[in-house]
Design brief:
About 40% of the residues are buried. Helix 1 crosses helix 6 and helix 7 packs parallel to helix 8. The two termini are about 40 Å apart. The chain has about 290 residues and is α/β, with parallel strands linked by helices.
């Protein structure tokens, strides 16, 4: 299920290009950024209610995946059979072919926990809630520590991951303005790549795709993101059972704390055939 095609991810604009030789009028390709609203329909037949649960700024494309990945990351979806339908609703915005509103219909026996959603929002936003409160909330939700013995990844594989992810970034080639998230196997095979103006959205699209396919067994996979890695990225990986995260950029302090608490492997600055291991070093092995 896919809400928009690749063509919606980019647009052309008129620019003035200046360099040492002078000025040229031409067109440039840029990434599209638009709001997307997620609405959830839940409750028993005859008592169903539609609620707006999130509005996010994203790059159009794979919108159904984004909605499902977001709900999975927030703990509002745990099993594929809880999901009845995904559809676009409402009129499209001016100049667009499709709506920016995604409606997710849950099974009758699924209770929409809005209190949980609100708590997660405050614990992951920069509103002054301390980092320890965020980590304790994850403990309370029953997240399990990753098995350190389940996955091993060779340093040489990590060295090759940035180039593999970069080669899959079709929209970035056109715009230079999109982040990417990739799902890798331990041997370095790239299973899936998604792009978006937001790193967290790209991760949600990956997880949403696997959830929709009924393939959310990811204990032997590695998540890679094209920029820095934050607490929110680690939380999404943890919710999907992904034990190892590789980032081209730097991790935040709370991302490192979360990785340590839940026995996850966290690698940063993976580029130019070097990287730093901030947590879970036992999974990284030298040699082939």
């Amino acid at each position: 299920m896919q809400a928009m095609d690749r063509g919606e991810a980019t647009t052309r604009v008129a620019i003035r290009a200046l360099d040492a030789g002078g000025e040229t009028a031409r067109e440039d390709t840029i990434a599209v950024e638009e709001p997307m609203e997620i609405r959830v329909s839940s409750g028993p037949e005859g008592e169903r209610r539609m609620r707006s649960v999130s509005v996010t700024m994203r790059t159009p494309g794979h919108d159904f995946e984004l909605a499902v990945g977001f709900l999975r990351g927030e703990g509002l979806l745990t099993r594929r059979d809880q999901l009845v339908e995904i559809a676009l609703c409402g009129p499209p915005p001016p100049g667009r072919a499709q709506s920016n509103i995604v409606r997710v219909t849950l099974a009758q026996d699924v209770e929409l926990d809005l209190v949980k959603l609100q708590r997660n929002f405050y614990s992951t936003s920069s509103c002054g809630i301390c980092g320890k409160a965020s980590l304790d909330a994850l403990d309370f939700e029953g997240y399990q520590a990753a098995d350190p013995a389940r996955l091993r990844v060779a340093a040489e594989v990590v060295h090759g991951m940035p180039a593999a992810l970069r080669s899959a970034q079709e929209a970035f080639d056109l715009t230079g303005g999109l982040h990417a998230a990739g799902l890798f196997r331990a041997d370095g095979t790239l299973d899936l790549c998604r792009e978006d103006v937001g790193r967290h959205n790209a991760v949600d699209k990956l997880i949403g795709r696997r959830f929709l396919d009924g393939r959310l067994e990811l204990a032997d996979h590695i998540l890679m993101v094209s920029g820095r890695v934050s607490f929110e990225i680690l939380q999404k990986a943890l919710s999907a059972g992904i034990p190892a995260i590789v980032a081209v950029g730097a991790p935040s302090s709370l991302a490192v704390e979360l990785a340590e608490r839940f026995s996850m492997t966290l690698i940063g600055f993976a580029r130019d055939r070097r990287f730093n291991v901030y947590a879970g070093a036992s999974r990284v092995v030298r040699g082939g």
